[in-house]
Design brief:
The complex is a heterodimer. Chain A is an all-alpha fold. Helix content of chain A is 78%, strand content 0%. Chain A is built from 10 helices and no strands. Chain B is of the alpha+beta class. Helices cover 23% and strands 36% of the residues of chain B. In chain B, the strands form 5 sheets. Chain B has a 6-stranded mixed sheet, sandwiched between helices. Chain B has a 5-stranded antiparallel sheet with strand order 2-1-4-5-6, with helices on one face. Classes of the chains: A mainly alpha, B alpha+beta.
Chain lengths: 222, 344
């Protein structure tokens, strides 16, 4: 029997991209939360963590309400890229990024906050800039946790379903990610593809979480 | 030269409000834990926000609350060494030093780091990771690293007593700026500091050469902080400038002292005398000035002497030989030599 693996490839591509985005912005955001005090920090922190607790449908609804064709943001996106955002694979990237980001930030921030603040003080008194402190002290000491956070973010992205379905839809070959494909295959009684994709997602997720745990465990050992 | 006026309130209950100057050489910030020593160093290095004040280093303004100036820590040229040295754990000793010398040309960088390793006797430890160093080596490495950045002042936070005379000598081999040393080690202050600032609860109690402070503390608080256990409240009952003598009435006994210029008959004063200045005699001794009969409560062994504690809060430190000679005394008298009496 021929299995269609394209949803899995799409999922991998979407997860890789949203992990990358989470990594770049999440590092900056986690560092900010861990090292700076500023007004409204608690509020910002809470807003960024909301996706961890909100129902996916609620977020999907917000996305549609703000990004659909005809809305201001939607028109802006369309005028920049020439295409609408909703019901494209890029929308799936957006949806899974919103879920991967807070998970990444939580883990990375914890690692940054766990570092001895005396080290940053020493580096600064030796003339290092904030940028220098980050690249030469903070990141080298926290890289295991950052990698662990990246692995977790990847696993979370792979598993994103609800919001993706709402804003990216379920267009086979275009926006149908593995998680969505499992849903559809099950609904329509195609047990073989459902099982294959479910197993594939599980193996990937297990690998990511296992790697993340190993990294954190090795860190606490050393 | 550091000129600092620093004020900060930390609720509840602590406030720092001090002013001092520190020229070239070692200035010791001496005081108990919680006196504000570390906070002062943090403020000068640029790590602690201040409510008000002004800090100058070699006439460069580092901080001025009124003018809204606060130079970032990385531009202050302060070699700051925290209590545990804060060595970067992911770098070897040599790499830690390299961190401070990164902006120099490559050859000079290697030469300077090698020199510094040599000077602080770290050459054989150069490839080790910081966790494998002894505490003293860690601190020496942190100082070497701070010096490599060519600071204009060195700020050493040392509540754990890792700095010693020889380390300070090695620092001064190639550094002639001010060195602020936060310490609780009185002997180190005396041995190595040109100037000593006695702090308690965020205030400067006294400042001056360590020897002067030991000889003439300004207040009971300072006397206690510099380890003078014999403090007695009393009244000057008589003052005779002609015979250069005085009479002191204390709660439990009376003493004859030297003339105390600047005091008047009837002044309520504190009498201070160092434990090693007291002498002890048997009950039979006579015709010695200022003998006070006292009951011996405890004898305690110290590293270099024997401390005798008498009733009435009198403490006398004796050499071991002296104590052996007198240990079988029947009854005790304590002699307060008049020249060693200090009035606070």
């Amino acid at each position: 029997m021929h299995l269609n693996w394209s949803p899995l490839w799409l999922s991998l591509r979407v997860a890789a991209l949203s992990t990358l985005i989470s990594l770049v912005f999440g590092l900056w955001f986690a560092y900010l939360l861990a090292t700076r005090r500023f007004r409204g920090k608690e509020v910002l922190d809470a807003v960024a963590a909301l996706p961890l607790v909100l129902p996916p449908t609620v977020l999907g609804y917000y996305f549609l309400a703000t990004l659909a064709q005809g809305t201001a943001l939607g028109r802006f996106y369309e005028s920049v890229t020439g295409r609408p955002l909703v019901f494209t694979w890029q929308a799936a990237v957006l949806a899974s990024t919103v879920y991967a980001f807070p998970l990444f930030v939580r883990t990375a921030r914890g690692a940054f906050e766990g570092l001895d603040p005396g080290l940053a003080k020493a580096a600064r008194s030796l003339g290092a800039s904030d940028w220098g402190v980050f690249w030469r002290v903070t990141l080298p000491l926290a890289y295991r946790s950052v990698l662990a956070a990246t692995a977790l973010a990847f696993a979370r992205s792979m598993g994103e379903f609800g919001a993706t379905l709402m804003i990216a839809g379920n267009l086979p070959g275009k926006t149908q990610t593995a998680a969505v494909a499992v849903f559809e295959a099950t609904e329509s009684g195609n047990t073989a593809p459902a099982l294959a994709l479910a197993l594939a997602i599980s193996v990937l997720a297990f690998a990511a979480v296992y790697v993340a745990n190993r990294l954190e465990y090795r860190r606490s050992q050393s | 030269m550091i000129q600092a006026r620093i004020a900060r309130k930390i609720p509840p209950g602590f406030s720092l409000d001090i002013e001092f100057q520190a020229g070239a050489g070692v200035t010791a910030l001496y005081g108990p834990a919680g006196a504000g020593k570390s906070l002062i160093l943090d403020a000068i290095a640029g790590f602690a926000p201040l409510d008000s004040g002004r800090i100058l280093l070699d006439d460069v303004l580092l901080f001025d609350a009124a003018a809204g100036v606060s130079v970032p820590a990385r531009l202050r040229n302060c070699g700051y060494v925290s209590r545990d040295g804060s060595l970067f754990p992911h770098l070897s000793v040599r790499q830690n030093l390299m961190f401070a010398a990164l902006r120099r040309p490559r050859l000079e960088r290697h030469r300077r780091v090698a020199e510094m390793l040599e000077r602080f006797q770290l050459t054989s430890a150069a490839t080790l990771a910081p966790p494998r160093l002894t505490a003293a080596q860690k601190y020496a490495c942190a100082i070497a690293r701070a010096l490599l950045a060519d600071p204009r002042a060195l700020l050493l936070d040392d509540p754990d007593r890792r700095v010693d005379e020889s380390l300070l000598r090695r620092i001064r081999d190639g550094f002639d700026g001010p060195i602020l040393l936060a310490t609780q080690e009185l002997d180190l202050c005396c041995a190595a500091a040109a100037e000593m600032v006695v702090l308690d609860a965020g205030r400067v109690l006294q400042r001056g050469a360590p020897r002067e402070i030991l000889l003439q503390p300004d207040s009971v608080e300072v006397a206690r902080l510099v380890g003078i256990p014999n403090l007695f409240e009393g009244v000057i009952a008589a003052l005779d400038p002609g015979r250069k003598s005085s009479r002191l009435e204390l709660a439990e006994f009376e003493l004859t002292g030297p003339y105390f210029p600047g005091h008047f008959r009837g002044d309520r004063v504190w009498l201070a005398i160092r434990a090693e200045d007291l002498r002890v005699h048997s009950a039979a001794a006579e015709s010695i000035a200022n003998l006070v009969a006292a009951q011996l409560l405890h004898v305690s062994e110290r590293s270099g002497f024997i401390r005798l504690e008498f009733a009435g809060g009198i403490f006398a430190d004796l050499s071991r030989e002296e104590f052996e000679r007198q240990r079988d005394n029947k009854g005790w008298q304590v002699e307060f030599p008049p020249h060693a009496l200090r009035i606070l």
